Structures are given as structure tokens and as C-alpha cells.
Amino acid sequence: LQDLTCILRMLTTNILLYVAVNLVGMYTKYLTDRGQRQAFLETHRSMETRQRTQNENNRQEKLLLS
């Protein structure tokens, strides 16, 4: 009976540990994905702004040359 109790406690502990480690892993992945997404959006916005500025400069240059 004592062996069964010990085995059940070990099994329960292992299951709880497994669940906890998986939750920590999922949270870490969420934070990593969120950080990468924010970096991507920032880079995308920067490239769009650069393109708009370049287009505006080209437009102004054409106006000056005409």
C-alpha cells in the first residue's frame, strides 16, 4: 500500500512538472513570437516610410527639373 501511494505521488508530481514546464515553454514562445512580430512591424513601417520619402524626393526633383 505504501509503495502504491509513493508511486501515485511520483506520478502526480511528474505530471504536474510536465504541465508546468510545458506552460513555461508556451509562455516563452508567446513572448518570443510577440517580440519578433513587433520587430517585423517596426521594420516594415520603417521601409514604408523610407519608400514614401524617396518617392516624395523623386517627385520634388522632377518638379524642380521641369
Automatic annotation (TrEMBL):
<keyword id="KW-0472">Membrane</keyword>
<feature type="region of interest" description="Disordered">
    <location>
        <begin position="45"/>
        <end position="66"/>
    </location>
</feature>
<keyword id="KW-1133">Transmembrane helix</keyword>
<keyword id="KW-0547">Nucleotide-binding</keyword>
<dbReference type="GO" id="GO:0000166">
    <property type="term" value="F:nucleotide binding"/>
</dbReference>
<dbReference type="GO" id="GO:0005886">
    <property type="term" value="C:plasma membrane"/>
</dbReference>
<protein>
    <recommendedName>
        <fullName>Adenylate cyclase N-terminal domain-containing protein</fullName>
    </recommendedName>
</protein>
<dbReference type="GO" id="GO:0007189">
    <property type="term" value="P:adenylate cyclase-activating G protein-coupled receptor signaling pathway"/>
</dbReference>
<feature type="transmembrane region" description="Helical">
    <location>
        <begin position="6"/>
        <end position="27"/>
    </location>
</feature>
<feature type="domain" description="Adenylate cyclase N-terminal">
    <location>
        <begin position="7"/>
        <end position="66"/>
    </location>
</feature>
<dbReference type="GO" id="GO:0004016">
    <property type="term" value="F:adenylate cyclase activity"/>
</dbReference>
<dbReference type="InterPro" id="IPR032628">
    <property type="entry name" value="AC_N"/>
</dbReference>
<keyword id="KW-0812">Transmembrane</keyword>
<dbReference type="GO" id="GO:0006171">
    <property type="term" value="P:cAMP biosynthetic process"/>
</dbReference>
<dbReference type="Pfam" id="PF16214">
    <property type="entry name" value="AC_N"/>
</dbReference>
<keyword id="KW-0456">Lyase</keyword>
